[in-house]
Design a protein that fits this description.
The chain contains 5 helices and 13 strands. By secondary structure, the chain is α+β, with helices and mostly antiparallel strands. The strands form 5 sheets. It has a 4-stranded mixed beta sheet with strand order 3-4-13-12. Strands 9-11-10 form a 3-stranded antiparallel beta sheet, with no helix packed on it. The chain has a two-stranded parallel sheet with strand order 1-2. The two termini are 23 Å apart.
Length: 238
């Protein structure tokens, strides 16, 4: 049984005859202790506070029966680990894509969860980062209230950032949550604005995911490892 925040993705699962439903990862409508195993892949790094990230792992543990296991993957700050570049860095295209044209922009988090509909180069709304800085990760200080927009297929320079997701194909309907990127004057792209979403990420430093999991007394870590730009743990419910 699968669940996701996106109704469109859940609908695709239904078309393929998979069992899936829409839900919030902080409040999963499944009875406690009813699952033999759970997986959380590329989800927890989207929660913007340490409290919510901990709550998401606690909710995952709640679903497990005693002895049940959970696998968690989150995006790693370290995209180059033990002198090896991750697949994410290796897949950088030779031609600069649109994401790279806006890497100097700074965006601020929206209030009340609403995205700004600004059509200026800098997509802005206010965000204060309260997470404590993790030692040794070399991340940018959380004192800066503005979130940087990441350049795709490059190393991370901040733990808290926005990653641009460009819509492909013809988008006739413009929603409030879409920012418009303004490209350099005279460029081909300047004649036709491309809608882009900015998704929040908190990338995890080495040891951070394990530390969060160890703060829960209902689980123990069976295994932790690095896998292609992700930090991963396997938990057992006590």
């Amino acid at each position: 049984v699968g669940c996701d925040r996106s109704k469109n993705l859940v609908d695709i699962c239904g078309e393929k005859n998979f069992q899936a439903f829409v839900c919030d990862a902080l409040s999963v409508p499944i009875c406690s202790g009813s699952c033999d195993a759970c997986i959380s892949i590329a989800v927890i790094h989207h929660f913007s506070t340490a409290e919510r990230r901990l709550a998401a792992i606690r909710e995952l543990a709640r679903l497990l029966r005693p002895g049940g296991t959970a696998l968690i993957y989150v995006w790693a700050m370290e995209q180059e680990y033990k002198n090896q570049k991750s697949k994410y860095l290796k897949e950088k295209n030779g031609n600069k894509d649109k994401e790279e044209e806006i890497n100097t922009d700074m965006a601020q988090r929206p209030r009340s969860g609403q995205m700004s509909d600004s059509r200026q180069n800098s997509a802005c709304s206010q965000q204060l980062l309260h997470d404590s800085k993790v030692e040794g990760c070399g991340a940018k200080s959380a004192a800066d209230s503005r979130l940087p927009i990441h350049t795709n297929r490059t190393s991370f320079h901040s733990q808290d950032l926005l990653v641009p997701w460009h819509l492909k194909g013809d988008t006739k309907k413009k929603e409030e949550s879409v920012d418009m990127v303004v490209f350099p004057a005279g460029s081909k792209e300047s004649k036709e604005l491309s809608p882009v979403f900015h998704r929040y990420y908190h990338v995890f430093c080495e040891g951070e995911l394990e530390a969060v999991c160890k703060s829960l007394d209902c689980v123990r870590i069976q295994k932790s490892y690095y896998d292609q730009g992700n930090w991963c743990v396997v938990l057992e419910k006590l």
